[in-house]
Design goal:
The chain is built from 13 helices and twelve strands. It has about 325 residues and is an alpha/beta fold. The two termini are about 35 Å apart. The relative contact order is 0.09.
Length: about 325
């Protein structure tokens, strides 16, 4: 299926590079299909990838000759990626290569202008930075990956595997992608998006104007709360409260409140056996129907699916005294 070039320079993240090499560099033993030729491209004298040293097979000038170019995660998103890398990635795309970024590798694609006017994603912790630095990019913070045809981007860390399997699925079909996923002991396709992995957005600083209000709200998520209730507690008008919320949290009071209710529901689904109805009551959602609607829209999967994925289960005892987990059980 052609050549896959892995573009590496000093400052790349080793996990994403290893994921791409593992998927594209090893053909599944159970199927007979033409597989990829993988080339590691970078400075010939060697590069530092995380804590490891790496000696590439080819220089970055090889990228325009590849069918697919994969850009792993870029460690320092506050720094401009090397011009040599940016130019080589741009040249590869202009030559007709399919270009995919893993995690923060999207910053390299954006610097090359490949994401302008396109929908793209990156690790949820850096989506705001990507959008601010490259306003021409339509950044989607919720998805695991975006397939734009000749340009693809993935969310953070494990989502690199989701995108690599998607590329295999696109090239060889679902049966081959499933065989690769089976070898790696991972699901061939994960439901939902990266919203289900995002930490609750409570400001870390305690010197903002809402420092006393936000904990008060979080302690009362099981009760009906309105903007007027919050404004009264804060000693502000509802309009002034809205402005303060936007400045501190980047969103409105009601949207922030809904997010906190969803995060609390996630905690209960992970840590308790409470029914969806009980979780709805404990989070101020009222009914299971309301919880399911808001949860699915916000997180990307229904509450029951989320619980199956994230709930910690005790290991099984097979009678030998050794505790086991089923290989395909969510960890």
């Amino acid at each position: 299926m052609g050549t896959v070039a892995l573009a590496v320079t000093d400052g790349m993240l080793h996990f994403e590079l290893a994921v791409a090499y593992e998927v594209f560099g090893t053909a599944p033993a159970t199927v007979e299909v033409p597989w990829y030729d993988v080339e590691v491209c970078g400075a010939r004298g060697g590069v530092g990838v995380g804590p490891f040293g790496l000696r590439p097979d080819h220089g970055l000038d090889r990228l325009p000759h590849a069918d697919t170019v994969v850009v792993p995660g870029w460690a320092d998103v506050d720094a401009d990626p090397p011009a040599e890398l940016v130019d080589a990635v741009r040249a590869a795309h202009e030559a007709g290569a399919r270009v995919a970024s893993l995690c923060t590798g999207a910053f390299v694609l954006a610097a090359a202008g490949l994401l302008d006017g396109r929908r793209a994603t990156t690790h949820w912790a850096h989506t705001a930075a990507l959008a601010a630095r490259h306003p021409a990019v339509e950044v989607d913070p919720d998805v695991l990956y975006v397939d734009g045809g000749s340009v693809l981007t993935s969310a953070g860390k494990a989502a690199a595997l989701d995108l690599c399997l998607h590329l295999v699925r696109s090239d060889h079909g679902p049966a081959v992608a499933n065989a690769v996923a089976r070898r790696l002991v991972v699901p061939p396709h994960r439901a939902g998006g990266q919203a289900q992995f995002v930490a609750a957005p409570v400001p870390a600083r305690d010197d903002h104007p809402l420092a006393a209000l936000l904990p008060w709200v979080v302690e009362r998520l099981d009760r009906p709360l309105t903007v007027e209730d919050m404004a009264r507690r804060a000693g502000m008008s509802p309009r002034h409260l809205g402005r303060r919320f936007r400045a501190v949290t980047g969103t409105t009071p009601l949207r922030w409140l809904l997010t906190q209710r969803i995060r609390r529901a996630q905690e209960l689904l992970e840590a308790t056996d409470d029914s969806v109805e009980a979780v709805a009551a404990a989070t101020g959602m009222g009914t299971a129907t309301t919880l399911r609607r808001h949860f699915h829209r916000t997180v990307g999967v229904p509450p029951d699916t989320y619980r199956r994925t994230f709930r910690s289960r005790p290991a099984a005892d097979d009678g030998s005294g050794v505790r086991h987990r089923h290989l395909l059980e969510p960890q």
